[in-house]
Amino acid sequence: MDKKTVQKVANLARLNLSEKQENELEQQLSKILGFVEQLSEVDTDNVEPLASVVDIELPLRKDEINDGGYADKILKNAPEQAEGYFVIGKVVE
Amino acid sequence: MTNELTNLTLKSALDGLKKKEFSSVELTQAHLDAMEAHRDLNAYILETPDQALAQAKRSDEKYASGDNAPLEGLPLGIKDLFCTKDVQTTAASKILEGFKPQYESTVTQKLLDDGSVFLGKLNLDQFAMGSANTTSYFGNVINPWTRNDGKNSQLVPGGSSGGSAAAVSAGLCLAATGTDTGGSIRQPASFCGLAGIKPTYGRCSRWGIIAFASSLDQAGPITKTVEDSALLLQSMSGFDPKDSTSANKAVPDFTSQLGQSVKGLKVGIPKEYFMDGMPEEIVKLWNKGKEWLRAEGAEIVDVSLPHTKYALPTYYIIAPAEASSNLARYDGVRYGLRVPGKDINETYKNTRAEGFGEENIRRIMIGTYVLSAGYYDAYYIKAQKVRRLISEDFMKAYEKCDVLLTPTAPSAAFAIGENEDDPIKMYLNDVFTVPASMAGVPGMSVPAGFDAHGLPLGLQILGKPWDEATVLQVGHAIEKAAALNLSPYTHQESAA
After folding, report:
1. Active site annotation includes B160
2. Alpha-carbon distances of A45 from A74, B76, B313, rounded to whole Å
3. B108 in Cβ contact with B343 (< 8 Å)
4. Angle between helices B49-65 and B10-18 in degrees, nearest 10
5. Is B331 contained in some domain?
6. 3-state secondary structure of B13
7. Do residue A13 and residue B241 have CB atoms under 8 angstroms apart?
8. By C-alpha distance, which of B323, B273, B272 is closest to B160?
9. 3-state secondary structure of B78
10. Residue B489 pLDDT more than 90?
11. A62-76, B117-131, B316-330, B417-431: least confidently modelled range
12. Does B204 score more than 80 pLDDT?
């Protein structure tokens, strides 16, 4: 893990890091990736990846409206709102 | 230092309320007073005394009219990861400071429906990421236990449910909710001399619990006794259509096997849990646990979980991957902190950099990296494959035994600042708890002894999927055999 990769990943994760943080993360992440590297010694040929531990089939429900109609509650914690909408800075010039 | 009402267990308080020996208002007020006297522990992020007393008053009316619910009038602490309607919920993060959910989590709604009283929101590691409760934006939680070396160093309560454990141990609530992703109920329970159970994945609804790693997160209780854990888990459990991974299974009576003999039960000892450099006192405690259960007629069998050593590295791929995805929602648009930038992307970046804690940033970075193009198969899919092998290890072991017995943590509570220099050192705290999380099986920690400094140590009982009742039964047998004084205050007075 080099500094360029740290910067690239930080951009993907939308994190504005200081140079000090980048340097620290370069070291720490290399160490952690080194630690997880030991998995390469496990033979996983013909092993299916496990996404969920419990034997539950994801249930389907009827495609009908059963909730909603409370925009005021949804907007209650917004940093900025107007006319029933979330407000953010200009996105399209 | 001791107060009769705050020393009660959940069960004895319930009995006292039923017999009208005291009222819920008196019981609640005693805890509110204790909370105020012990703010130095920093166990609560938010105290809600007005709400608590109003609930207690309603509970007293229910007792008077005879419509009391199963947990009527019992004051609880709620980990600040559970969304509570109109009450600030932060996940101990600056990014959610001031957030007031407009809904109640399913688990806390069940506790409210059963009549319990909420004293406030308990401190935790930021977004439940940590093993020492030293990553909260609202400051460290202090363990009420201290070493008997006269130095009075402040110790960590464990994490991430550190506020829950410190509060229950110090008598700042009768019992508390916790959540466990890789050991966050069991390790703090061990560090504070308490019982705590992580049920089978799918037993409790995750709806309204702020998500960390969704395929691992489970709610559970942290309590003074095993019986209290059974009582609280009973209320917290059950199917919820709002959580697609919640199991549509009947919830058995978790107290039904308490006190039953463990005679004939097969207790497995996984040989891989004997680790190099494991402290002598942990090995001794483990042996003592075996002896107690053998003396009660259980059969001790050696078993093998061959992929144990890979559980932690697997966890540190899967948990950060899921966390990076879950924490993507904190963007400064819909709730929480916003730090404006020159455009929307800069607003996201500023908000997230300023709002998240260091450990959150570390895990988001690892998670984003292992999920990014070119690395997904090498890391994430590989980890999911190893996860299947870890899970299969457990199922094979359970062909030979009913439960597994292991230590909960590799040490007793450590001092604040210790293990902070290297993230991996901190991660090793969870070496005995993470494998069961990977497999989704139930696990509980029960206090079983003390280390050389007089600090509590726990043993861990792991069970078959959906068999919490047997886990609690064995936990109860160990608790009875150990017969410890687990008040952090009177234990040390009597030892001195």
Report:
1. yes
2. 47, 48, 19
3. no
4. 50
5. no
6. helix
7. no
8. B323
9. strand
10. no
11. B417-431
12. yes
Domain that holds residue B447: 5-264+400-495
Give pLDDT, residue B494: 52
CB contact under 8 A, B313 and A35: yes
The CATH number that applies at residue B258 is 3.90.1300.10
Q: How far is A45 from chain B (nearest CA, A)?
A: 9
pLDDT level of residue B470 (50, 70, 90 thresholds)? very high
Task: Say which residue, B151 or B112, is predicted with more confidence.
Answer: B112
Residue pLDDT, tens place only, B40-80: 999 999 999 999 999 999 999 999 999 999 999 999 999 99
Q: Positive or negative CA dihedral for B437, B246, B399, B381?
A: negative
Q: Is A89 on the interface with B (CB under 8 A)?
A: yes
B396 is annotated as an active-site residue: no
pLDDT for position B128: 98
The answer to whether the beta carbons of residues B131 and B158 sit under 8 Å apart is: yes
Indicate which residue of B23, B59, B93, B184 is catalytic: B184
B422, closest residue in chain A (CA to CA): A28
Which chain B residue has its CA at the smallest distance from A42's CA?
A: B386
Q: Give domain status of residue B376, yes or no.
A: no
User: Closest Cα partner for B383 from A36, A30, A9?
Assistant: A36
- Shortest Cα distance, chain B CAs vs residue A13, angstroms: 6
Total domains, chain B: 1
Q: pLDDT of B62-71, one tens digit each?
A: 999 999 999 9
Cβ neighbours of B369 in A, within 8 Å: 1, 5, 9, 29, 33
B161 carries an active-site annotation: no
Inspect the interface and report whether the beta carbons of A79 and B386 lie closer than 8 Å: no
B328 CA: distance to closest CA in chain A (Å): 8
Select which of B131, B160, B190, B235 is catalytic.
B160
Domain membership flag for residue B75: yes
Q: Are B20 and B91 in contact (CB under 8 A)?
A: no
Domain positions in chain A are 1-41
Q: Which of B24, B59, B79, B161 is catalytic?
A: B79
Q: How confident is the model at residue B423 (pLDDT cuts 50, 70, 90)?
A: confident
What ipTM was predicted for this assembly?
A: 0.95
CATH 1.10.20.60 holds for A1-41: yes
